[in-house]
């Protein structure tokens, strides 16, 4: 889990950009998403001028946090008021520079996801002030948003008392109910699986403004799809092709024929249930993407207030169960209460989603054929890497067996 830059409690992760080695391998000793990704202070100043004319940068730092994106922290000075009564104010912004594995879709998905969640579900989210999903002007894609008050929930969750955790669970459930049930059907494109794509953008001064969107390809470039089976077939086929190109995954080759068998029979296998109904999904709604403010005098007794839901870059329209595969992992013993609250609000949970267990097995196969954190590995012979490969192989084997393959 990566920590979030939207925190006033600790600035130790902010360093001078000149001291950062943008080509250093990540903590998995891979050339990860941020490899070679950077944005100069000059380019940041140009971006700032598009939505805050006359503002000047007084501080420009880069965060050592974040795994998929390079995060820059800006402090901008801006004169406000009449000429003879000008007052200089400071505003703080985050520039999120997209990692190198994605082109256009991830950036546009965040812009659209935030707009829908804020405008139609009235959730607390950062507001995108400017973005570029093309990447040709400065060599990178980016979004810019104000730095928000609060602390990432994953930093304080274990310190919270029972009352504090209960309060957060209730607030989070209420927000999930809002974006799952309160957005009109005519706002959300129906009948397609995929992430978001901006189909209409206009200029507001020098900055961009979203005026239209649709369901488009997923972040890996495939789709959209009209049915669950067609979505699953594409994903399994793609992951299998990736696995075959990765020398680090050769130890998994014994399961590939069984995955091929699943692919061959998928369309005709009536035990695997198809689906054509999909829901608005955040895609990564875990503790690191929830900002909270708490009582600084006694954090253990306080009920923190959720101030923002962050990182909508994986959002889109997906089968209902997929939200639970990548979200809410921090709840643990509070999961049952959370599901109770969601169900009371009309949201399906793993207890009520038809064939949830089967979908989880299929998801585990898809995610473990070519685990993203093992691809492009610089040391395939590392003992820890071998353990990870063996674990992924056993997960695929076990899931296939439970499905009858």
From TrEMBL:
Residue ranges constituting the Aminoglycoside phosphotransferase domain according to the UniProt record: 87-328
Domain of life: Eukaryota
SUPFAM superfamilies reported in the protein's UniProt record: Protein kinase-like (PK-like)
Protein name per UniProt: Aminoglycoside phosphotransferase domain-containing protein
């Amino acid at each position: 889990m990566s920590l979030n830059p939207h925190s006033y409690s600790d600035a130790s992760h902010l360093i001078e950009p000149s001291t950062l080695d943008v080509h250093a391998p990540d903590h998995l000793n891979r050339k990860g998403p941020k490899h070679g990704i950077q944005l100069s202070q000059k380019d940041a100043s140009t971006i700032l001028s598009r939505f805050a004319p006359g503002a000047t940068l007084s501080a420009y730092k880069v965060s050592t946090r974040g795994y998929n994106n390079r995060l820059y922290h800006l402090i901008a000075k801006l004169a406000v008021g009449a000429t003879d009564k000008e007052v200089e104010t400071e505003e703080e912004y985050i520039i999120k520079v997209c990692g190198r594995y994605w082109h256009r879709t991830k950036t546009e998905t965040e812009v659209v996801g935030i707009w829908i969640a804020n405008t139609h579900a009235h959730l607390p989210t950062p507001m995108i002030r400017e973005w570029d999903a093309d990447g040709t002007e400065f060599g990178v894609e980016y979004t810019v948003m104000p730095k928000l008050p609060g602390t990432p929930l994953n930093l304080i969750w274990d310190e919270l008392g029972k009352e504090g955790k209960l309060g957060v669970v209730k607030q989070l459930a209420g927000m999930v109910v809002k974006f799952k049930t309160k957005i009109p059907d005519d706002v959300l494109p129906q009948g397609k699986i995929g992430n978001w794509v901006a189909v209409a953008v206009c200029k507001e001064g020098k900055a961009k403004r979203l005026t239209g969107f649709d369901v488009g390809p997923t972040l890996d470039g495939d789709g959209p799809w009209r049915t669950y089976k067609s979505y699953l077939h594409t994903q399994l086929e793609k992951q299998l092709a990736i696995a075959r190109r990765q020398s680090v995954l050769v130890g998994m080759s014994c399961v590939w024929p069984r995955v091929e068998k699943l692919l061959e029979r998928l369309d005709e296998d009536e035990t695997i249930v198809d689906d054509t109904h999909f829901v608005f999904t955040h895609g990564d709604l875990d503790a690191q993407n929830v900002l909270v403010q708490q009582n600084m005098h006694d954090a253990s007794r306080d009920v923190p207030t959720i101030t923002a839901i962050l990182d909508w870059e994986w959002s889109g329209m997906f089968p209902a169960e997929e939200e639970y595969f990548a979200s809410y992992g921090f709840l643990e013993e509070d999961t049952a209460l959370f599901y109770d609250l969601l169900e009371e609000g009309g949201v399906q949970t793993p207890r009520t989603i038809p064939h949830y267990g089967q979908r989880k097995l299929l998801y585990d196969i898809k995610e473990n054929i070519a685990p993203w954190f093992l691809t492009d590995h610089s040391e395939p012979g590392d003992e820890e890497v071998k353990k990870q490969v063996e674990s992924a192989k056993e997960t695929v084997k076990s899931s296939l067996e439970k499905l009858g393959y």
